[in-house]
Write a structure and sequence with these properties.
Rossmann fold, 380 residues, 7-stranded mixed sheet, globular, alpha/beta
């Protein structure tokens, strides 16, 4: 069995069961160090427990309360958040032990600037608490994962629930808001000049619409369209649009393949979504038909290495394959014949090959100092 059920014409380097020889436990080289492996496993176990407390602190507003009103005792913090003091005290000591809250002595706790950036301030590009929310949203569907392992069929995005759509946006939006308009767009040849003068742009797989709204606010003369197959995501996007007061944005509850081949978009964005799609090749062909001959397509996706075996040495491999099994692979296999790229499946060689087969001829790699994502500027 392969993880890729449909392939671009050039063979992708994907390992199949047939490529593997049968081995036994005796053939596996021994590391000879149970203590090191045990420490690593206990570290993962501790990380899971700490992650649960981070998620609780985020959902219950404890980090935000410490940021807004400053250091506090457990009694003071419980009163601010409307919670029980004994439970808040236990949470605070656990967070101090994990290094995520600072103990100041005499029963008082506070947040350093760095702790606040990571866990309390959603406007900071380093904010990470939304990622913990995504993880625990996904844990709610444990039985569906058992079914997926047995049947090979994943779960449609909307079946993951509205909380999942919300927390995914909270996870990805802070860094995007700080970088898309001031850093990324100016590095794409000719794009900001077109947007300033008045252009037509699309975000395909727009999610909650945060990226589109950032661009629309910065370029009021341009027209922006967001497309997503998720009803939950489009509901969030419409709500965010209503709060923004912008009038140059339209959201469409539609799949990427439904884009009309009118060759009129000056800019197309796909942000962390192609690897989730059941038919990314179809989406790419649709984008080729919808983009202006002189238009720009910005692909932002997870920075996987060329082969799964090379990903074993990726510093975030455990995290990203975890998200793949819990989330991305399921979305990509939620229909019969879904491609199922998985979180790390759209590596640069695969992206080059697939965009070329969709009719694009130019492919430029950009580096915006993001440890998770790769950035590709693609043109016809």
């Amino acid at each position: 069995m392969t993880t890729v059920t449909e392939r671009p014409s050039q063979e992708l380097t994907e390992t199949t069961d047939e490529d593997l020889t049968e081995t036994t436990g005796e053939d596996v080289p021994e590391t000879g160090d149970l203590d090191d492996l045990g420490e690593r496993a206990v570290g993962y176990l501790m990380g899971a427990a700490v992650s649960a407390l981070v998620c609780l602190g985020d959902q219950l507003g404890l980090y935000r309360a410490l940021l807004d009103t400053g250091p506090a005792t457990s009694r003071e913090l419980a009163a601010r958040a409307g919670l029980d003091e004994r439970w808040v005290r236990e949470w605070l000591h656990g967070q101090a032990g994990a290094g995520l809250v600072r103990y100041l002595g005499e029963g008082r706790f506070g947040l350093t600037r760095e702790q606040a950036a990571l866990l309390a301030d959603e406007d900071d590009p380093a904010f990470l608490a939304g990622g913990f929310g995504v993880l625990f949203d996904l844990f709610q569907g444990w039985e569906r994962l058992h079914d997926s392992f047995r049947t090979g069929r994943g779960t449609p995005y909307d079946d993951l629930g509205p909380e999942h759509a919300r927390d995914e946006s909270r996870f990805s939006a802070p860094w995007m808001r700080a970088n898309l308009v001031p850093v990324i767009l100016p590095d794409l040849a000719g794009v900001t000049a077109k947007l300033t003068a008045g252009a037509k742009a699309a975000d395909v797989g727009c999610g909650a619409g945060r990226a589109l709204l950032e661009m629309a606010a910065a370029y009021p003369r341009s027209e922006f369209h967001g497309y997503d197959s998720s009803a939950e995501a489009i509901r969030l996007a419409e709500r965010n649009l209503s709060h923004s007061g912008l009038t140059n944005v339209t959201f469409h509850h539609a799949e990427a393949a439904s884009l009309e081949p009118h060759a009129s978009f000056d800019l197309v964005l796909t942000w962390d979504c192609l690897h989730d799609m059941t038919d990314p090749a179809g989406a790419m062909r649709a984008i080729r038909g919808a983009i202006d001959p002189d238009g720009t397509w910005l692909i932002v996706d997870l920075a996987g290495r060329p082969t799964p075996e090379e990903n074993h040495d990726h510093p975030l491999a455990g995290l990203l394959y975890g998200f793949s099994v819990l989330d991305c692979l399921g979305c990509g296999t939620s229909v019969e014949g879904g491609l199922g790229l998985g979180t790390l499946g759209l590596s640069e060689p695969v992206a080059r090959q697939m965009t070329s087969e969709a009719g694009f001829t130019r492919f430029t790699v950009h580096d915006f100092d993001n440890p998770l994502n790769a950035f590709y500027e693609v043109r016809a």
